[in-house]
Amino acid sequence: MKRREAREKAIQTLFQLDNNEMTVDEAIGYIVDGQLNSFYEQLVRGTAENMTEIDSAITNKLENWSIDRLPKIERTVLRLAVYELLYNEEVPNRVILNEAIELCKTFGDEKSGRFVNGVLSKFN
């Protein structure tokens, strides 16, 4: 599994977890069959385990928005990207931002990408 695919599957998994009463393992089971990719698993578990810190970091960068008011896909992409920005030093920030924008194009719309880019650019 390439990193882009791992990120796409991580977004799908984290989207399932958002406001649902399920465990990380249950959400992973809905998205991935068989062998888990270590990068994918790191993204999902790391984001889920650090959600409080991630949401706090996002909230500090939002203007006139609360994390709960964000559309679900933008919130999910932001959480994944901020997890990588804060906890994954091996991936350059520029790559994380580009990947987040691509994820918005895949799962959201053009406005999603611009919004997410605006929030994430404040982390540099």
> How much helix, percentage-wise, in residues?
over 70%
Query: SSE order in H/E notation?
Result: HHHHHHH
Radius of gyration from the alpha-carbon trace, in angstroms: 13 Å
In the predicted model, the low-confidence regions spanning at least 5 consecutive residues are none
Q: What would you call the shape?
A: globular
User: With helices defined by DSSP (H or I, 4 residues minimum), what is the helix count?
Assistant: 7
Q: Give the N-to-C terminal Cα separation.
A: 28 Å
Helix-strand category: mainly alpha
The pLDDT mean sits at: 94
General description of the model:
There is one protein chain. By secondary structure, this protein is mainly α. The chain contains seven helices and no strands. The chain has helices at residues 3-17, 24-31, 38-49, 51-61, 72-87, 93-107, 110-120. α5 runs antiparallel to α6 (93-107) and α5 runs parallel beside α7 (110-120). The longest helix is centred in the middle third of the chain and has 16 residues, at 72-87. The radius of gyration is 13 Å and the shape is globular. The mean pLDDT is 94.
Q: What's the gist of this structure?
A:
It contains 7 helices and no strands.
Features:
124 residues, 7 helices
Question: How are the secondary structure elements laid out?
Answer:
Blueprint: H1 3-17, H2 24-31, H3 38-49, H4 51-61, H5 72-87, H6 93-107, H7 110-120
